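Appendix B. Chain record.
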Amino acid sequence: MKQVGFGACRNMGPLKKVLTRHDLWDLIVEVVLELFLCKEAFAMTKAEIVEDIATKTGLTKKDVATAMDQFLESISKALAEGKHYEIRGFGTFKVKARKARMARNPRTGEAVPVPDRNVPVFKVSKELKDMVSNA
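Structure tokens predicted for this chain:
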């Protein structure tokens, strides 16, 4: 754990808080929420997210990148095991089963069988939908 200045980015004035792993997860979610709520349309890379969190927390980019990698790995492993991963107020990552179907080759028009498979999906929470629609 590392002690950092917290809150200056939200016009709350500086305050000191011990940053726990739970706080870091919350910051990752907060930065992703900011992306959804931003009125400008732009894409943000993982490196830019890491830099943003590091700036807000005072942690090193290496520490934030490690936490971000662990966060994403945790979601990936859960999905690979067929579990869902819920982040309250943000959304749920799930695995959805797609049925086998017949598709068409656009070049030849020939019917091609597509086997059944599992695909990862993200379902946005009601709170996030409301935040985005009111932004």
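Further analysis of this model is presented in Appendix C.
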